[in-house]
Every structure is written in structure tokens, then in C-alpha cells.
Amino acid sequence: MTLALKYAARSDRGLHRSNNEDSVYAGPHLLAIADGMGGHAAGEVASKVVIAALAPLDEDVPGDDLLGKLHEAVVSGNDTIAELVDQDPDLEGMGTTLTAILFGGGRLGLVNIGDSRTYLLRDGQFNQITRDDSFVQSLLDEGRITPEEALTHPQRSLVLRALVGHEVIEPTLQVRETRAGDRYLLCSDGLSDVVGFEKLAETMQIADRQACADKMIELALQGGGPDNVTVIVADVVEEEPQPQATQAFESSNNHMHPVGPTTSPPRPPVQMPPQQPPPHQATMQQPPQQPQKKKKRGRKIAIIVAVSVIFLALIGAGIRYLAYTNYYVGVSDGGEIAIFQGVRGTVLGVGLHRKVEGSCAPAAGPDCRPLRIEDLGATNTTRANEGFPVNDLEAARRTINTWRSEDQQPEPQQPVNCPTPLPGSSATSTPTDVPSLPGETPPGSSTQPSC
């Protein structure tokens, strides 16, 4: 009898995110979750790059050097992030957390950086076995806040250490013994920030690991689903040697995805697959005379996935650059003339513009009267409704000032109150015919408006 891993993985983009920056891999030797950061698809690139660097570890029995292999893969992934940032400065600031297990039978290697977590349920005791590299964790360590306060702290998502490419940040590595009956939970902070420790411990008692993983996702969504959420539930079991299907589970913009089958029929350990597996899946069943094909195919799949994601991210960055280097004057939702950065329209439902300021510049002061669409003449109304392009922010402000002077009507003059003529008197006075010198006002005349 040998110890083996049986696992289930789930991922969901949550209720408030348009894409999923989490990436996850689940196989018979490797379990890994990376939570990308950086936005605009950059976080998704970083997490997938690191997972792609770890994936080859699942292709062979790890051997004794569990931590050495994990460390080498993490450094490789971090170096790739640095190369991508050097090639495209728009990716500056992207990075990823990582929590991963390399399973070696009676032992496992555990690597962690950031605030993605690994928990262990053993003999009825549920414990977190990784430490968050976060600001809130530092406050807990110093005794400045309580665990209850940490759950609602406004800076609970602030990560102090992550894989960002610029420098080699040493991850936390540890070796742990494994026992039959152990159950591991790996998760991104989309679960641990929303669901409390006691509820996680209760949910881990669900015997069926797939149902357990589903329930974890359900709890995160019931808690508001503010972030992407990804979980792996894995059991250590005793069994006769038999393989599991190895699958790199890719997160996407869709909602809950299963990893797929976690077991396959028994076969001799040396066999390899008779045909090319589908993308993200490597099932080993071919004659032993070509042992290198398995490793090459896994690497090829990882490279294809990483290149595809990077290509899409570069396209998105290019669109974002072209959009946000333009300005135009248009109409805001409330009808006020406003300055926008970007271009009108959307791509795949994502807006390509944002409002910069209203019709009153910050230096205009409190007496500035907002310019509204109904204040404009026909020509400038059409220009505003269609979005009037300008070169920069100052040009936009000048355009608004021009429209204001062209189209806003001057304040009406107050009528002059003239005295009511007395009965029998004339409404107008007849000036006395008295000579006057040049430059003098003739007697009887007035500089006031005529009544």
C-alpha cells in the first residue's frame, strides 16, 4: 500500500470581478494556487506564468529534494515575470501570491508567499499551516489587533511579499510528514477573507471532497463574493499504486469549473498515453521506449498557455494605452459638460473612457457655474453629444471656456425704475436751451437711461 492524493478543485471569478486572476493546478504530485494582482489582465498573466513554471514538477515522482525543486520552479517563474515586465512596461506592478504542495508519498514540500493559504485537517484538528505575508498578519503578530478585528480590517488585502519579478523574494518553504486520512485545503484570499475559520473547519467535515469544494465556493459567494475565489480540497489515502489524471486547471472568466476526473483505471507505472492529450491535460499511457515525450509535451502545453495569455494581455495593454492617451469633451450622466480621458465606446462590455473633471476646473473656484448641455447652442450641443476630441486636458478646458463664452446668455439687465409723472406734468422734460461748453453735459440732460 502507498499513500496517494485524491483531490477536487474549484474556481469562481466572484460577484464583483470581470475576470479571474487566480490560476490553479491539481495533479497527483502537485497542488498549487496563485492569486494574481496588478489589474488589466496583468495579474492573470503573472499567476499563469508561475503555475506554468511549477507544472512540470507533476510529471515525475518528486524524489527526496522536494524543497529544492519547489524553490527552483518559483525562481524560474519569478524570472519570467521580470522578463515580461522588461518587454512591456505596461505590465509593471503585476505579481502573484503562491501556495503549493509537492507530494512525495510519506512527505510533502510546502511553499508559500503572499496571503494564499494552506490548511490541514488531521485527526479532527483543523489548522492553518502557512503564514500570511500581509500587513494585517504583522499587526496580529505584534498584538495590535485581534483575529476578529483582522477579518474586517480595511487593509486586510495588503500583501507585503509576492512574486513581482524585480527581485528574488525567498518564499517560505517547509517539509511535513503525511498520514493517511489527512485532508488539505488550499485557497486564495477570496475564500479566507470572507469565510471565518470556524465555518471553514465545519465545511471540511463534508466527506465528499468535490461537495466540500463546491460548498467552499458557495460560502464565499454568499458572503458577497468580493474577489476571485479558488479552492483545492485534497485527501491523503492508502491504496494500491494507480495513477490519477493530471490536469492543469485554468481559471477563466466563467464561473465555477471542476478540475475533471481525479482517478483513472489502474495501469503499469511505466506506460504513457497512446495519443496527444487535449490542452491542459496529460494522461500518461505510452510504451516506455520514449520516456522524454511526456516531459516535452507537458512543457509545450505550459508554454502555449503562457504565450497565449501573454499575447492577449499585450493586446489589452495596447488598447488601454491608445484609449487613455486621448481626451474629449462630452456630456456626463447628469447633463453637465465634462472632460473625459479615453475614447467613446466599449470593448467586450468594458468602457474605454473615464470622467476626469466637470465643466469647472479645480482652479475656477466656488463661483464657477457648471456648463450644462441645455446652455449650448445647436452646433456645440451636437459636438458635445458626439464627443469633441482634444489633444490634452488643457485643450479640453479651453474648449469648455470657449463654449461657455459663445453660448451662455448674459445675465439680463434690471429695468430702470422711472418716477411716475405727477398729474398735469409732462412725462418728459424739455431741456432748457442754455449754451454749454465743449465736453460739458448740457443742463437738464442725464446720463441715465431714458425712461
TrEMBL record:
User: Where is the PPM-type phosphatase domain positioned along the sequence?
Assistant: 6-236
| SMART domains (UniProt xref) | PP2C_SIG, PP2Cc
EC main class here is: hydrolase
* Disordered, as annotated region: 242-297, 404-451
Which segments show compositional bias classed as Polar residues? 243-255, 410-433
Is Nuclease given among the entry's keywords? no
What the entry lists under Pfam families is as follows: PP2C_2
Gene Ontology molecular function: metal ion binding; protein serine/threonine phosphatase activity
Q: What is this protein called?
A: Serine/threonine protein phosphatase PstP
Record-listed E.C. numbers: 3.1.3.16
Which cofactors does this protein require? Mn(2+)
Where do Pro residues bias regions lie? 263-280
For whether the record's keyword set contains Membrane, the answer is yes
- Tell me what organism the protein belongs to: Kibdelosporangium aridum
